[in-house]
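Field log, afternoon session.

UNIT: design team B
ACTIVITY: writing a sequence onto a fixed backbone
BACKBONE:
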């Protein structure tokens, strides 16, 4: 009986010692570990971002690293504050994070907190809320409140100044933007992270340098969204709206576009605008951003003839009536336009219109350059001086090879010297219209590059 009692006392003493050791360990973890964490001098962090920035234009990010130093301190009310300063892609930043850890045998280790990030001297920055558990997963929500999106922001101005394309370097823009993102992983061992992100742009005015006359976009607004799982990314459909787009003397109002991103190009499912009191529409075409290639048919409905003709270089006169039509074209390498067969521009059947050309010399000169005879040019010039038309048709027709001709048909009456005579003109212009158009584009591009 004595031996049994001694053995029991010995075991009890062992359990008491073990419990004391565990208590000391827990006390060290609870009070000593936080103190040790705050006293450690942590080394500088350097991360190479070259792989993440592989698709960026050359020279845009001469410094492709993230370098920072950080320290940890106790925060009032429990938990820790992590403070960091450093440089990301060469730009200084400041970041802080408040972390509140907890542990229980039932729920395991958990941590939650908030973080803030700011590019020094810039309006760009945001906040994040996060939670993590082990065993378990994590979740985070990032918010960048509405900020001024402008080329005068120091960080954005620095990026623009290094862009290899002059058009981009000369961009001027001013608007508002906000950003939100969510990410989570339900199990650290057996699942992959999923995420979604959204950027909303509003009230954005943009000026794009383009030769002698810049292109101006007024009140552009859109939403850019994406979501992914592991390494797979899907872009959300994008809808762009702008009150006005002005360039080369033309103004498009109430412009819109519905765009979907693919791996190699953008699919514009529909786009349109008001132009010359009429409508223009484009449907389902791909734009290759690397080569700037696109094929599209432009549909025209209800254009005011007078406003449309006023955009032609050298046109001096007046016109009335409505025009409808379509123009199949392709854009190659960003500066070559190819006309396709089937294009036309017609007056509305059954409606009459008026055409008066005060100075026919620019029209006559162009006709002569296209090979039209002098007698025919003279007759056309006289008819266009005061024409009441019932039919105005311009059709693009194919010729031998890949060239296109313009078939023009005019029917109506012309008044001259008090006499009214019937007019019925059918003229085919066998000129290289693509060459004339592309020569103008190249001249504008050359003038822009010389600036």
């Amino acid at each position: 009986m004595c031996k049994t009692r001694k053995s029991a006392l010995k075991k009890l003493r062992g359990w008491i010692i073990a419990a004391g050791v565990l208590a000391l360990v827990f006390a060290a973890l609870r009070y000593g570990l936080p103190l040790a964490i705050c006293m450690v001098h942590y080394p500088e962090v350097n991360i190479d971002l070259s792989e993440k920035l592989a698709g960026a234009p050359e020279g845009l990010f001469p410094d492709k690293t993230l370098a920072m130093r950080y320290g940890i301190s106790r925060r009032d009310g429990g938990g820790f504050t992590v403070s960091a300063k450093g440089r990301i892609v060469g730009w200084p930043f400041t970041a802080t994070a408040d972390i509140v850890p907890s542990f229980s045998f039932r729920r395991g280790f958990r941590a939650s907190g908030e973080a803030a990030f700011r590019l020094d001297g810039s309006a760009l920055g945001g906040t994040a809320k996060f939670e993590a558990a082990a065993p378990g997963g994590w979740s985070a929500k990032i918010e960048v409140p509405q900020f001024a999106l402008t080329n005068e922001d120091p960080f954005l101005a620095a990026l623009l100044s290094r862009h290899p394309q002059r058009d981009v370097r000369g961009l001027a823009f001013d608007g508002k933007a906000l950003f939100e993102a969510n990410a989570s992983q339900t199990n650290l061992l057996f699942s992959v992270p999923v995420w979604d992100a959204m950027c909303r742009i509003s009230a954005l005015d943009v000026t794009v340098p383009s030769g002698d006359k810049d292109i101006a976009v007024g009140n552009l607004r859109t939403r850019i969204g994406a979501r992914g799982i592991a390494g797979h990314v899907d872009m959300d459909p994008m809808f762009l709206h702008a009150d006005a787009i002005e360039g080369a003397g033309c103004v498009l109002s109430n412009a819109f576009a519905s765009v979907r991103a693919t791996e190699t190009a953008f699919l514009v499912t529909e786009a349109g605008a008001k132009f010359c009191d009429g409508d223009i529409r484009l449907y389902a075409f791909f734009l290759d951003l690397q080569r700037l290639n696109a094929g599209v048919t432009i549909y025209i409905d209800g254009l005011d003839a007078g406003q449309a003709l006023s955009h032609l270089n050298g046109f001096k006169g007046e016109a009335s009536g409505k025009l409808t039509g379509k123009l199949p074209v392709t854009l190659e390498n960003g500066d070559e336009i190819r006309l396709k067969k089937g294009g036309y521009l017609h007056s509305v059947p059954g409606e009459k219109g008026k055409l008066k050309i005060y100075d026919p010399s620019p029209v006559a000169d162009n006709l002569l350059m296209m090979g039209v005879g002098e007698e025919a040019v003279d007759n056309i010039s006289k008819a266009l001086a005061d024409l009441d038309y019932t039919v105005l048709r311009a059709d693009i027709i194919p010729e031998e090879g890949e060239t296109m001709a313009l078939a023009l048909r005019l029917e109506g009456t012309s008044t001259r010297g008090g006499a009214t005579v019937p007019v019925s003109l059918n003229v085919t212009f066998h000129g290289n219209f693509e060459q004339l158009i592309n020569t103008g584009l190249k001249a504008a591009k050359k003038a822009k590059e010389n600036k």
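LOG NOTE: The chain has seven helices and 24 strands.
NEXT ACTIVITY: expression trials, pending approval
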